[in-house]
Structures are given as structure tokens and as C-alpha cells.
Amino acid sequence: MKMKTIYLVRHGQTLFNVQKKIQGFCDSPLTELGVAQAKIAGTYFKEAGIDLEEAHVSTSERAIDTLQLITELPFKTHKNLREWNFGTYEGEGEHLNPPLPYLDFFVQFGGESQEELSNRINKSITNIATESENNAILIVSHGAAIANFYRKWEDFSDVKRTSPIKNCSIMIYDYDGDVFRLREIINHDFSSLEN
Prior knowledge:
Blueprint: E1 4-10, H1 15-19, H2 32-47, E2 54-58, H3 61-70, E3 75-78, H4 114-131, E4 136-141, H5 143-153, E5 170-175, E6 180-186
Parallel strand pairs: 1-4, 2-3, 2-4
Antiparallel strand pairs: 1-5, 5-6
Helix pairs in contact: 2-3, 4-5
């Protein structure tokens, strides 16, 4: 199998991000800043000369809107690319979150365990990458979901994450049919938008 490149992108800033609310499976719209962030991510691909061939996205509106601002490619939606299911904590303030790692904390509130999230996001991305006949694949997902995918493959990569996964950051993975290796993390400078 020839090497494939996976461009794993977190959605743009949302209303709940600004309000510091837990999103998970529930949704909130992109803010004006979130829209601008997604457009900047789209510009990155154009300026870097990256010809995306295929696009996949979580079923959440915030992720779909982000993808459509990045590329005009047709796309497939996947429920298993959604954010962590936080159960009845969704829509509540982030101050209610327990300390990391969350592990099984949200199961008692009707959510999923960290292991369940890790397994489903990894299986979904692996299936997309394995079944695709293309080499440059865009996947738009969510912060905690992407963080758990990162954690699964961290030991195989020389590139390490040194900060939280920011809105519209791009994690570039090489996939050889066996292992995902993180090649680069693109964190855009949005400071000019935040004034």
C-alpha cells in the first residue's frame, strides 16, 4: 500500500467554546471568528499547494460548516467522528469537568468512557484511510476526539503535541497501512482576528 496523508482538522470556534460550555454530541454554531479560522485553514491548503482528494467529517454541524469553508470537495459524514459523548454534562459549564484524565467519569451520566471514544475515533479514521484509494484525505473532527487519536499513535511519532488542540489546527499524519505517524502540526496565527 502506498503512503497516504491524513489532514486531521478540528472545527472552528463555536458559540459554546466562547461560553465555555461542554459540547460533545450536542452542537452550537460557528462564531464569526470560527468562520474566519476555517477560511484561513482553507487558504493554508491552497498556499501550500496541497491538492485534497477526499473529505470526511463528523455529523456535527460545526464540523460540516468548517469543512465546507475549507474545501468545495464532496464529503461523507460519519457519526463515529463525533466528539466525546459527555451525557447529561452536555450544555453545562466546563467548570464542572473533573480533572484530566476523564477515563470513565461520564459513563455514570449517560456518556461514554475514554476507551470507548478512543476505540471509535481510531476505528473510524483507520477505516477511512484503509478504504480510500486517494492519497490526500481531509478529516474534520473535534478536540477531545482528535486528542485521543493522537494519544493512540503518539509513541510512533517524533512530532509531539505541546499545547491543546486549537480550533482549525491541522495535524498531518502519514499512514502506511499499518501505523499513523504525525508529521506536522499546523497552528495558524489568528491573533489579527481576535482584536
